[in-house]
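Tokens as discussed.
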């Protein structure tokens, strides 16, 4: 804390605030307070193991828990078959022209099936 800030604080504590310029103390010396007085905060409760894990993740004593949480990577839970199908259904509704029709897909299935059947016949004959 600078000498000027210390004197200002002492004068405020002594009741001489009226003699000081109307500047909030928190804005005159950035080292005076740890948190920005304009920043909204939220109090949370952690179990001890979670607190210890958060504390270990700090890169330095000066790093706040908020900074640790901001750089954390969260597991998104991954995809499931049902979530993929639901997403595809939404895409098909929004962009129907981007998907092949059921008729085209059936035709492709038939052609792939026929091609696979020919490969099996060729393999059985021993010829290519």
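Sequence:
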């Amino acid at each position: 804390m600078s000498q000027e800030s210390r004197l200002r604080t002492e004068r405020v504590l002594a009741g001489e605030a009226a003699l000081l310029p109307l500047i909030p103390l928190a804005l005159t010396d950035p080292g005076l307070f740890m948190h920005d007085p304009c920043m909204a905060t939220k109090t949370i409760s952690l179990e001890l193991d979670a607190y210890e894990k958060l504390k270990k993740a700090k890169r330095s004593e000066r790093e706040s828990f908020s900074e640790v949480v901001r750089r954390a990577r969260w597991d998104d839970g991954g995809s499931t078959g049902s979530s993929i199908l639901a997403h595809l259904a939404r895409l098909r509704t929004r962009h129907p022209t981007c998907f092949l029709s059921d008729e085209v897909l059936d035709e492709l299935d038939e052609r792939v099936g026929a091609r696979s059947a020919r490969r099996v016949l060729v393999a059985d004959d021993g010829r290519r």
